[in-house]
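Let us practice reading a record.
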Amino acid sequence: MRSLILITGVVNSGKTTYLHKLISEYRQKGKTVGGFTAEAFYKKGEKIGYDACDLRSGAQQALVRSKNVLPPEEFQQERYQPESYQRVGRFLLLASGLDFCRRCIEDSFNCDVVCIDEIGPLEMAGGGHRRVFEKVLSDYASTLIVVAREEVVDPVIKIAEKAGWAVEVVYVQRENSE
């Protein structure tokens, strides 16, 4: 059965942490898990981006970086030219990172569970992980776990249900810290 678990919540509510919990539970049950997570990348205590982590191999690749923290000379390098990234607010979504994520997904079609971290407004506008998300919806036939921004939950549900997926939504709420 094609089953989609959609993890959502506000920014920094623990969506990826919850995804890691689910991954651990599936692995404990003997299930194979593939795809990728987006792990926050910090420099001097400040979040400056995300690295994609391949859930099968553990390999990592830069996925998102803040333009504001890159030295001007580094930003002028070929890897940061406009055709090599997509702007998302103050961040750059790197084409090399997107390609890495696509390979992580495509190499995981034989897994029991595939994870995508995350889908947001950029994907709903046709950018980011949109193509690989659509490929998974059409070509994969088991359990899919997707982290999604709150504002795109309804469109993601419509896209998935139209493709024949049963959808379960899990809302993660920020824990009170006292």
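A brief commentary: The helical segments are 15-28, 72-75, 95-106, 121-124, 130-139, 153-162.
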